[in-house]
UniProtKB/TrEMBL annotation:
Residues 55-203 form the IFT140 first beta-propeller domain. PROSITE patterns: WD_REPEATS_1, WD_REPEATS_2, WD_REPEATS_REGION. Keywords: Repeat, WD repeat. The keyword Mitochondrion does not apply. It comes from Nyctibius grandis (Great potoo). Pfam families: Beta-prop_IFT140_1st, WD40. InterPro entries: Beta-prop_IFT140_1st, WD40/YVTN_repeat-like_dom_sf, WD40_repeat_CS, WD40_repeat_dom_sf, WD40_rpt, WD_repeat_striatin. This is STRN protein.
Length: 219
């Protein structure tokens, strides 16, 4: 709709895998198959403020998120199996999180809303938890029967939701790291199933999107 389109951020030369908006700074973060992560000023259509990983030293970025405990930082995961924390203003790589099997692709990284913890979803069915201050691995678990594609934490920081190509959504208690609910949400198509999951910011709704071309909302 032309009445709501403000313009296009031009700069990426390949598919854009992830977008995150920072309301605090009115900034937009994007990660792309062209190997770069870009920081944009959301209030005006202009070239990127900063470009990260432009020589692809970490690999191709697969996911990016804002670090909730420090709004000047972002966390990014890569197809090489690495996850790093960057300062968005200085472009400095602050920390690379400990990786045991570093060759396994990470499909999603999210930041815990209240704790200095990053959570990653892996192609090899694992979910891993990291301490943002030390970079150390806190916990690792086989979470699904197929690749874990998506993660979300509820606004209160008590529950983790994960989606997978095994067609299931699983709800986890973050304190005990145990699965408290599992249900099938989407059919498989071309060996893929669930692509994204989300919690509603204030109501008791969750949502998912899948390769079967459906988006679903659950109460």
């Amino acid at each position: 709709d032309p009445s709501v389109l403000r313009g296009a951020f031009v700069g990426h030369t390949d598919a854009v895998w992830g977008l995150v908006y920072s309301a605090a700074h009115q900034r937009l973060l994007s990660c792309s198959a062209d190997g770069t992560i870009r920081l944009w000023k959301a209030t005006e259509i202009a070239p990127a403020l900063n470009i990260f990983n432009d020589n692809q030293e970490m690999g191709i970025p697969s996911s990016v998120d804002l670090v909730s405990s420090d709004p000047s930082l972002m966390v990014a995961s890569f197809n090489s199996g690495h996850t790093s924390i960057f300062n968005m203003e200085t472009r400095q790589r602050i920390l690379t999180l400990e990786s045991i099997s570093s060759s396994c692709q990470i499909n999603r990284v999210i930041s815990h809303p209240t704790l200095p913890i990053s959570i990653t979803a892996h192609e090899d069915r694992h979910i891993k938890f990291y301490d943002n201050n030390t970079g150390k691995l806190i916990h690792s678990m086989v979470a699904h029967l197929d690749a874990v594609t998506s993660l979300a934490v509820d606004p209160n920081g008590l529950y983790l939701m994960s989606g997978s190509h095994d067609c299931s959504i699983r709800l986890w208690n973050l304190e005990s790291k145990t699965c408290i609910q599992e249900f099938t949400a989407h059919r498989k198509k071309f060996d893929e199933s669930i692509h994204d999951v989300a919690f509603h910011p204030s109501k008791c709704y969750i949502a998912s999107a899948g390769a079967d071309a459906l988006a679903k909302v659950f109460v």
